[in-house]
Amino acid sequence: GTRPQDQDGGGGWPVEWTCAGIIILIFGALSQVGRIAPSVFVGQCTSLGGMCTPARCTCSPHLRKRELVTQDAQACFQCIAEFCPTVSEGDLTCTTSACECDDPTWPRVDVGLGGQPCWQCVRPPLDFTARIGPLDDTC
What we know:
Blueprint: H1 4-7, H2 15-36, E1 43-44, E2 57-58, E3 64-69, E4 75-80, E5 86-87, E6 108-110, E7 119-122
Parallel strand pairs: 1-2, 5-7
Antiparallel strand pairs: 3-4, 6-7
């Protein structure tokens, strides 16, 4: 009798070698995807209050991305619905939408117009206090 590989001339690659070659090519391609298309692996920024994402991330189209700094001086990002209007003390400009201050150290104030919550971020006053001390240079 004849063997099956003898019927087609026997000059081709064995199936095992072909499958192994294809698997090696697939693994090689997958190992390079991170270098070729890093934007494919960009995650979603958090929208949880008091938290931020310490890596490159994106926000949904209806949210805005806010850059924050962690306690160890690392940049991190958070998705928020809207920025509140930034005003000086006494200004009544506000928004009824849920919002956050662009600078999280500024106070977010509800000025409550017409019984509805209305939010604004009050820019802290700058302290230009001049102190007059003794005229001599002693400590």
